[in-house]
Amino acid sequence: MAHRPPLLLIDAPSLYFRAYFGIPESAARAADGSPVNAARGFLDMLASLIRTRQPDRMVCALDHDWRPDWRVALLPSYKAHRLAPEGGEVVPDTLTPQIPVILDVLAAIGIPALGAAGYEADDVLGTLATTQPGPVEVVSGDRDLFQLVDDTRPVRLLYVGRGVANLDDCDDAAVQARYGVPADRYADFAALRGDPSDGLPGVAGVGEKTAARLVTRYGGVAEIVAALDDPDAGFAPGLRTKLTAARDYLAVAPQVVRVARDVPLPELDTALPKAPTDPDRLLALAEQWNLASPCRRLVDALAG
């Protein structure tokens, strides 16, 4: 049987934030002086991904709720350091107006972009990776998405820690080599280790190596916590004390880290078009926002 091209799932916020900080505003402006560095970089990333990965399907996932109430209820510190004084996420003033531009271009081309109320882009990606036919390739710079890797479907993570031109193409073996745990235990590992960028404190004194050893020996967080009540479980006294002190945190942290896989999403056509679905609209947007070159590169990539 011929190998089917992949479904490419794009973590849009991860990529457009990267584009914004990777390209100076002075290098990409519209005729009215508005910065379009994030839009230009994001579109060029998509063109590069289409050329190199040759998908036949694509979806861009959005943050309709970057800090869902249900996660905050479990762990109030979740992303609290990124909360603006007036509410909402701290986002650069010159990035916010570029997001509608990106969405308008995607709509003109015919690449679906969607989010879901009460969920993050990660959760949309997790649901699509679970429900859509494989193979699936998830593109993100978010470490939490290592948990989606599944060799049986298959689902891979194209990790953009070093940029789209230097993707880390990760299967389960790559996750184990990087962190010492299989992908299906990554959420437990991450809960133990913590992640300051998401406001996850982790267990005090437990780093990556100790977290990996715990997961390898005992299993998930629930099994580790249960083993604390067994005097013969083999914990060093100091480690037992640290884990015991973190019981309340460990009761909720895995649910916060774990990506949802059952987000209610509308029916959508994931097929990647060979040409823009609304070429006149795309031309108008390209002219308005001085995005002719990246739009042309993206259209050329679609045509193959």
Automatic annotation (TrEMBL):
GO molecular function, one term: endonuclease activity
The keyword NADP is assigned to this record: no
CDD domains the record matches: H3TH_53EXO, PIN_53EXO
Pfam family of the protein (one): 5_3_exonuc
InterPro entries on file: 5-3_exonucl_a-hlix_arch_N, 5-3_exonuclease, 5-3_exonuclease_C_sf, DNA_polI_H3TH, FEN, HhH2, PIN-like_dom_sf
Superkingdom as given in the UniProt entry: Bacteria
Family matches, as Gene3D superfamilies: 5' to 3' exonuclease, C-terminal subdomain, 5'-nuclease
TM annotation in the entry: none
Residue ranges constituting the 5'-3' exonuclease domain according to the UniProt record: 3-273
UniProtKB keywords: DNA-binding, Endonuclease, Exonuclease, Hydrolase, Nuclease
PANTHER family: 5'-3' EXONUCLEASE FAMILY PROTEIN, FLAP ENDONUCLEASE XNI
Function: 5'-3' exonuclease acting preferentially on double-stranded DNA.
Annotated protein name in UniProt: 5'-3' exonuclease
Natural source organism: Micromonospora echinofusca
